Amino acid sequence: MTMMTYAEEALPLIGQAVASFIAAAAFGVLFQVPKQTLLPCGVTGMVGWVAYVLLDRWLDAVPSTLIAALVVTVAAQLFARTYRIPVIVFSVAGIIPLVPGGVAYDAMRSVVENRYDESLPLAAKAFMMSGAIAIGLVLSEVVNRLLLPSKPHADQSQPEQ
């Protein structure tokens, strides 16, 4: 491959990265997250989408979505610890670019157009991608709790014996 081919291949990925950053940050605005977290929300969505696009070259969409959701949640956990803000602020905004809205739309459109042979595989794919997102979010949270146990809060008093 020549240098021009690498540039031609990287340009669409850069555009998608920027678009996913904007989508995640914009959802953060709609979700009314604190202003100092808008940039990390955008970065979380961008990292997840770039992971999905890169993995989608070698894997099917469902495992790519699962791994990308894990990446989003790991980034969200890191930002939550850094900014001392609940992880949901970053994970909800960061997961938005992975939501299979286009696949669900195509499934519904093919139903409306009476192309049922196309609609079932698309609907199943949208359902499985949504499930992969949910599993990725939960799995990462479970692994995080196992590897990094949380410290007890200062306001929790120890029971007397």
Helices and strands, with pairings:
Elements: H1 3-30, H2 38-56, H3 61-83, H4 87-95, H5 101-112, H6 116-147
Helix pairs in contact: 1-2, 1-4, 2-3, 2-4, 3-4, 3-6, 5-6
Could you please describe the fold and organization of this structure?
The chain has 161 residues and is mainly alpha-helical. Helices cover 76% and strands 0% of the residues. The protein has six helices and no strands. Helix 1 packs across helix 4 and helix 3 runs antiparallel to helix 4. The longest helix has 32 residues. The termini are far apart. The model has no long low-confidence stretch (mean pLDDT 89).
Brief descriptors of the model:
161 residues, 76% helix, single chain, globular
Number of helices: 6
Unreliable runs, pLDDT <50, ≥5 residues?
A: none
Instruction: Kindly report how far apart the N and C termini lie.
Output: 72 Å
* Mean of all residue-level pLDDT scores: 89
List SSEs in N-to-C order: HHHHHH
How many strands appear in the DSSP assignment? 0
- The share of residues in helices is over 70%
Provide the structure class: mainly alpha
**Strand-residue fraction?**
under 5%
Radius of gyration: 19 Å
Morphology call: globular
Biggest pleated-sheet summary:
none
Short description:
With 161 residues, the chain is mainly alpha-helical. The chain has 6 helices and no strands.
